[in-house]
Amino acid sequence: MRFKRQLSLKLSIALTFLLLGVVIVVGYSMLSINFFFKGMDNIISATMENVAKTYIESTVQPKNPSTKIESYTVTESWQEQPETIKSLFKEPKEFGVLHKKRVRKDQQKRTRVMFFLIKLQIKKQTFYVSREFNGRDASPLVGKNARENRQLIIVLSIVITAALALLIWLLMKWLSQPVSRLTSWTKSLTPETLKLTPPNFSYPELNDMAALVKASLSSVNESMEREQRFLRYTSHELRTPISVIRNNIELMHKIQQKHQISLPDKQLEIIDRIDRASLNMQHLCETLLWLNKDNLEQLPSQPFDVADLIHHLVDEMRYLLKNKPVTMTLDTHSYSVTHSMMAARIIIGNLIRNAFQHTWEGTILIKQHGTEIIVSNHCSQFNQDTPSDAQGFGLGLQLTEQLCEKLHWQYDNQTQLDGHKAVITISAQLR
Prior knowledge:
Layout: H1 9-58, E1 67-69, E2 72-75, H2 83-88, E3 99-106, E4 111-122, E5 125-133, H3 140-187, H4 204-259, H5 265-291, E6 302-305, H6 306-316, E7 326-331, E8 336-339, H7 341-357, E9 362-369, E10 372-379, H8 395-407, E11 410-416, E12 419-425
Parallel strand pairs: 7-9
Antiparallel strand pairs: 1-2, 2-5, 3-4, 4-5, 6-8, 9-10, 10-12, 11-12
């Protein structure tokens, strides 16, 4: 689906003002033309009234049915008017209203003739005055004035429109500069520049907006820093007790082997649970510490075989499948890459551990070809009623996704009807 490109706010305001200006210019131009013709009508009406008065003063008895005075036809009854006038107009009902009609007389030469008619009441007598005008009857001065008036209106309209456009352009340029500086300042903000005072953007509204942006970003930045400090400090503090637990468990196993001490099955089960919990805590702390690294581009890289790493991780976490009716399929092919082995160990280990830990009954497939690794678990019908985060959607996968994003690895996390599927692709080299 294609979307039309939206107009910018600056262009929208400029076009709105320009359109408004054009409408005003056109409106006043039409009003000027209308006033011009109204003035001409008033002159003709006054002339017709003067002709009627002349008719009254100069006519002697008996009066002619139709009298022409200066090309004006003056009659006292409608029936005495020329046939052309009676065919073009209906008998006027109101006094002092000028009626006019333009008729094309010659189709080939495109000559037009104007007819005027007015009904007057002078000294309680009714008169009808009419006149036929053509191009020859009109004074050259009238035509000249009409042309000059039309040209003046056109020139003034163009000049006013151009001046208005120029004024709007200068105004928008003057107003847009502070907005552009605000946009550039917002894009250049960093945790360091947030501590500085915002510059002056000339207008109180823009200064208030800059202060609001600074306050919002500062709040978000402080929250992120607090979160990172908490994760960093917590991860470091947890490493010591976890190391103590792991070392003491290893020491206990060595003492048992050295002195051949046999512990009850219940105690062995308790020790095994402590061992697995401490191992999970160790992996989680390592992941959190890696997420808090500021620059993963400087991590040490070394050549290693992806298939060997997967087999080692599977053997290390196989205890999670103990006493579970789970069938695991491991399909790997030897492939050597040069990358950060610790990063690959954490990410792949998180995927395998989640699949082992959250599959209580069903199948697990671990497939590797080249740098692409697929880890999927298919739970039985019994497991489909369990919550989604119990089928491989745990914290480990969220942390894995964040690590892959920082390392620029391809990562795809898919939800299936009977389980979960995660696909990662190790990048060709450490960026």
